[in-house]
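Loading example: each entry is read as two labelled lines plus one structure line.
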Amino acid sequence: MHGIFTLLATSTHVESLDGDWLWALIKAIAFVGIFLTIVPVMTWVERRGSAFIQDRVGPNRITVFGIKNAGLLFPMADGLKFLFKEDFLPEKAEKILYTLAPMMIMIPAFIVYAVVPFSSPIMHESVADDGAITRYIFSIQIAPNLGVGLLFVFAIASLGTYGIIVGGWSGGSKYSFLGSMRACAQMISYEIPLTLSVIGILMVYQTLSLQGMVAHQTGGGLLGISWLPHWGIFVQPLGFILFLVCAFAETNRAPFDVVESDSELVAGFHTDYSGFKFALFFMAEYASMVTMSALIVILFFGGWHIPIITPENPGSYLIDWFRGFDMSLLWASILTTVIHFAVFMAKTGFFLWLFIWVRWTLPRFRYDQLQALGWKVLLPLGLVNVAITALLLLFYGM
Amino acid sequence: MTGQYIPILCAAVVSVGLAAGMLLLSRILGPRNLTKRKTSTYECGVEPTGSTRERFPIKFYIIAMLFILFDIEIIFMIPWAIEFRQLGFLGFIEMAVFIGVLVVGLVYVWKKGALEWD
């Protein structure tokens, strides 16, 4: 055993800063800040990416002092525009519900981030006069001690359905009502195969904690191949495909975007919304995309682990390497954390791009096809996946 | 035990504050001149007729009922999956019986045509 675990075992005293509510508050604000940077960048990637895929130029009109910036300032202009737009109430709308709906959908989308481990923890040590070593741990995660991790994500993320149904109903428009009914039926239909697809991987990891899942995917040598990292996708390929398909349906993204199928329902459940209320729906959609991408990375792609660099050492091969340069534990772990964070973001970014790529490549499903796929294909396949995993675990121990 | 949920509360406070703050800010900054035409419900330019909150297809209720049944099934599977190695072969058989009963239900629903949208 190397890295974090040996370090912690040789400490006389380990102190965690994770229980402190003040730190949790600071981290929560920081993560919201990170997120508020990702959303505008994502809208830019989506617009430029769709232009690239459709062989157009895309947004390029805003220049700063004559400098072209490939439309990078459009998201900022969009944000300002949302703030300065008139925020009015349609005459048939229920005032309180109409105002609450965008909050009901965005708040759960943000709270989910509390359990996502973005990087390896930062550590610091202090040696007392009598040689006793105290080590401090600072996790890059708002609520690291929450044992129910994944269950929490599913529970909170599905609360977003209420926001959709309330938003569509309270607006008083028939299009948004139809859109919200469809969205609700779609999300609850796909929640079943989504949860079912992770049962197999839960049997392998034997933990619900997202940190524990990342720790489980350390090192290589899966199936006796030394370079093959111990990632979930190689253990649960079918589970991964099911999860990916359900992730697209859960986030109401193409090819499952019948909710806001522009040609039939105008914009679905948020047709009547304007100003920042609309922006909140928009942010929630991207928030759930980021959540789903992060979950895919954590469950199936080793979280913040780097495949080849950590061939045999769990956790902090990099820390040991940095400490070889006479670095203090604090600086070595900060550097490691930064690298791991970048790796995590790169993997998540790939899946975010996949969401966009698929949206501008595949045509939309019809609603009956979508329901049939969920109930008649994905649900039985999910059960088959669980059965196969159970039998393999029973007879080969995996 | 409840201590581990305190950070969640912090995250909740921050996100509620963010959402409410932004709505408030846009309310303060945005213009307000309402007209009859502007506030009328948008239905592609056609005058809206009747109420929106009327009856809707029973399909949606059926999906919701199926969801409750199967979601509870999956919830039972989560602790079983975590403890799978400890439960061993007996646990597998027990879950197989439980799932078997529900699969029979799924087949019934399927044959009855409750999963068809027409």
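The mean pLDDT of chain A is 81.
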